[in-house]
Amino acid sequence: MRTVDFVALAILQWAVAPATASAHHGSAAHFEEGRRIEIVGVVRAFEARNPHSFLYIDVADQSGETVAWRCEFNSIASIRRAGVDENSFTPGEAIRVVGHPARRDARECFFLRAELGDGRTVSLPSWTPQATGLAPRLEQDGIFGTWVRKALSSGGPRMLDFLTEAGRAAVAAYDPIRDDPVRRCSPVNPTRLWSNPVQPSEIVNEGERIVMRFEFMDAVREVFLTSAIHPADGPRTVLGHSIGRWEGETLVIETANFSEGVVSQYADTGDGGFAGILHSDEYRLTERLAVNPQTGELEIRWTHEDPKYFTRTFSGGPTTLVRRPDLRVNDYNCEPDAE
Predict the structure, then answer these.
(1) Which of 120, 272, 283, 324 could, after both became Cys, cross-link 116 (CB 3.0–4.6 A)?
(2) What is this structure's pTM?
């Protein structure tokens, strides 16, 4: 392992390099993933929390004054599975961090890796889940069990190209950094719950209903199988009200009774910027869940419909998940990020 020669609170060193894997969900809106910086200093503190953890570093600027830097991580629930925890960084130790620079804060980065004064390295490699190798029991388990996302879908028409006037006004009023619902500990949208590459979800058959428990945001969804309609006077919520039916081995979930909210926190506007994809209280979501009999993987396809904000419906998928009975859905205990 290479030893790092730390100069006392050395000056920042800037570097430009192509990004590898995406830092975390939607990070491009917050951080410049095509650039990297090096930060050399001393660890002040490590804050282990959800939805994001933070490493604080004291750095000497060009005048010799000590300034505070902050480097963001994914949630502690995620990075623990990569071997990083509350004991990975010790206050007072020398450190050299490589990360993506923030777009709005000149003293903030997204953490990629670090070299510590004692020769240790800490890194967060791209984590691609694999099946456990256990023989699939499709006849017994079907869609039920514990799953972790393997891959997101890609392609399809850009939702931002088919906005109504009301939809354009909603998008214009949304700041993808300031208004990101995750930073307020919101589960965002049912489709967002399936997108985390590290945090598992569990699908349980409880007879007249199917219960879905997600580590992300401690979210719980109930899919009612004995009703064909949504309650007209029911509450309007972020995750809506879900009813389900079986079409062979495929579970079809129809969700309505949403409050106004977010389909996707960030979308590329095509000009280097980012915008949120918003939905109205007329939004409806259809999901189709089925296990691929050849791979044993869970595939989720969906359709978004919102005549108030969009001029057409949108279908996508599949998002693919692998079965992981060796994992459990842990408590998330989200704490809102500071403004």
Answers:
(1) 120
(2) 0.78
As given in the structure block, the two tokens for residue 128 are 């691609």
- The candidate with the shortest Cα–Cα distance to 106, out of 24, 53, 41, 37, is 37
Q: Is 281 helix (H, G, I), strand (E, B) or coil?
A: coil
Task: Give the Cα separation of 136 and 54 in Å (integer).
Answer: 39
- Closest CA relative to residue 243, chosen from 262, 232, 256: 256
Show the tokens assigned to 270: 């095509």
| Tokens describing residue 271 | 């000009």
pLDDT (tens digit per residue) in 112-153: 999 998 889 998 766 666 666 555 554 457 999 999 999 887
What is the reported pLDDT for 176?
A: 86
Taking alpha carbons only, the member of 129, 98, 76, 131 closest to residue 14 is 98
User: What is the rounded CA–CA span in Å between residue 326 and residue 134?
Assistant: 10
Max distance between CA atoms of the chain, in angstroms, equals: 70
